[in-house]
Structure formats: C-alpha cells, structure tokens
C-alpha cells in the first residue's frame, strides 16, 4: 500500500483552483488521497493513463441508475499537474 505523508503543495492546490481549504488526508483506499474543499487529489503512477481515464469518465453520460465521480480539471484544463 502506497502512503503519501505530505499534502499536495500550494502550487498543486492553486493549479486546481483550491484556495481556502487546507488539505487533509482522506481515509480509506490506498491511503494516498487528500481532500481540500470539495476537491479530492491523488498522485498518479502513470500520467498518460490518468489523462485517458479522466477523459473517459468526463465523457460518460449519467443516468439515474449510473453515476460516476467526475474528474476535476486544473484551471488550465489539464487533468494532471506534476503527477
């Protein structure tokens, strides 16, 4: 299990438009996710795969029976910033 002990740096928070909330660890999963405001951040092992996954999830049509967590793009439109 990979554990991240340091929160995302300020430049990452700024890149995703998070300004007011201090990141805090998000419990569960692999132990490497942080939540700041309403944005959950997690490092990626493979940026190309993460971008592909974000594109697919962002394009899926939701119904009452099917919903997905929508990826949050950075302010400049990128899906990943510094991994």
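Sequence proposed for the structure above (83 residues):
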């Amino acid at each position: 299990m990979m554990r991240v002990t340091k929160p995302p740096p300020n430049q990452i928070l700024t890149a995703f438009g998070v300004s007011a909330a201090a990141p805090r660890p998000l419990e569960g999963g692999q132990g490497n996710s942080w939540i700041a405001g309403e944005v959950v951040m997690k490092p990626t092992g493979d940026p190309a795969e993460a971008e592909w996954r974000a594109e697919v999830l962002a394009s899926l049509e939701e119904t009452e029976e099917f919903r997905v967590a929508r990826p949050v793009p950075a302010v400049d439109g990128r899906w990943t910033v510094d991994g």
